[in-house]
Amino acid sequence: MKKRKALIIGGGIAGPALALFLKRADIDAVVYETKPSPSRYAGLFLNVAPNGLDVLRTLGIDQPLTEKGFPFARMVMISGRGKRLGEVYNGSRGRHGIIIKRWLLQEAILEEAVRQGIRVEYGKKLEDIEFPAGGGVLARFADGTEAEGDFLAGCDGIHSRTRRIVFPEAPAPAYTGLLSCGGFAYNPSLSPTPGVQRMIFGKKAFFGYLVKPSGEIYWFSNLPHPEATTRGALGGLSNDARREMLLEWHAEDPEPVREIIRSTEGDIGMYPIYDVPFQPAWHRGPVVLIGDAAHATSPHAGQGASLALEDAIVLARCLRDLPDPAEALAAFERLRRPRAEKVVRYSRSIGNNKAVSNRILLWLRDATMPFFLKLFASPNAHDWLYSYRVDWEERVRA
């Protein structure tokens, strides 16, 4: 039989991971990336939770990433007055996640894909998608080239071009009312935070940080910003302007918040936080959306990368075990939709607690937070989130 061929739009995390699993399923795949060449700058840092690490372990690339990342088992919550509110585990059943620079994760997956002979083409901006009369799918790119395959996976992020083409009626991503800022600093005077990320519910904004033994600091801030904006619009702010803006927002918060912001010499990232709480359909004909293209989640639960990795292994299993593409894509959506949408809602609820600015509500939040944190004090309190496992050997039934 002729081997099936997949067209994968997007060379971030989900795309190359899907290509690797499809290769295991004896399905050829080509990854098409808009960027003109591989780039080491791909955002700041992210959390790969235990459920995401489990997928990387199936691919055999978890160990080097774990060594390059910052393992952390707990998040310590602190009020804007510097009072310890409680802590939450970043994992369950003795397993925890890592924080890693985004480009390191993307590079590792992409390099493994190339090592295994998977073709990755750059400078391929998707222009249109057509459905030939004989079946399959045809992708047209802005450079005038085209590609044919048996099916196409849109792994092209929250502002997915694939989604806009195939699902023009789909709702736009929803703005959450927060900006995310962050960067890397170096300050050897601050004590390392082994295994811990500190989270500060500030008077006006939320701040999180960790300090590596080397003195390098990973930090982020979430600022309330009621008016929807774009990453491009924020690009007009200089680095100095962003620093001053953050210092003003965190003027009433305990140290080392302002000290960390001041010691950031590199770029300070800033972007609006959107999510996709509900996408009416994830597949149409031989086209399917996965990762952020289908169910983008805000970063507050640290699950974006892990959900994308879960999607990759589940979709590949469905295509492996159900030869009819329509049946396979329907099974994928059935298996993944409930969990993905639950995580998106959960993450949005966490973000809503960060956007509190009214003084009375701030007092109420800080007064009740210790009680609610005690409810989640058990290492297994988030089993539903972190203990999700996908067995590659298990067969999928229609």
Number of strands: 19
What is the straight-line distance between the termini? 22 Å
Q: What proportion of the residues form beta strands (DSSP E)?
A: 25-35%
Tell me what the CATH architecture of the largest domain is: 3-Layer(bba) Sandwich
Number of helices: 13
Structural class: alpha+beta
| Outline | globular
Can you tell me about this structure?
It comes from Planifilum fulgidum. Pfam families: FAD_binding_3 (PF01494). This is 2-polyprenyl-6-methoxyphenol hydroxylase. Keywords: Monooxygenase, Oxidoreductase. Residues 5-164, 281-346 form the FAD-binding domain. It is a single chain. By secondary structure, the chain is an alpha+beta fold. It folds into two domains: 5-173 and 276-386, FAD/NAD(P)-binding domain; 174-274, 2-Layer Sandwich (D-Amino Acid Oxidase, Chain A, domain 2). It has 13 helices and 19 strands. The strands form three sheets. Strands 3, 4, 5, 6, 7, 13, 14, 15, 16 and 17 form a ten-stranded mixed sheet that branches. The protein has a six-stranded mixed sheet with strand order 8-2-1-12-19-18. Helix 2 packs across helix 10 and helix 10 (304-321) runs antiparallel to helix 11 (325-354).
Task: Give a short overview.
Pfam families: FAD_binding_3. By secondary structure, the protein is α+β, with helices and mostly antiparallel strands.
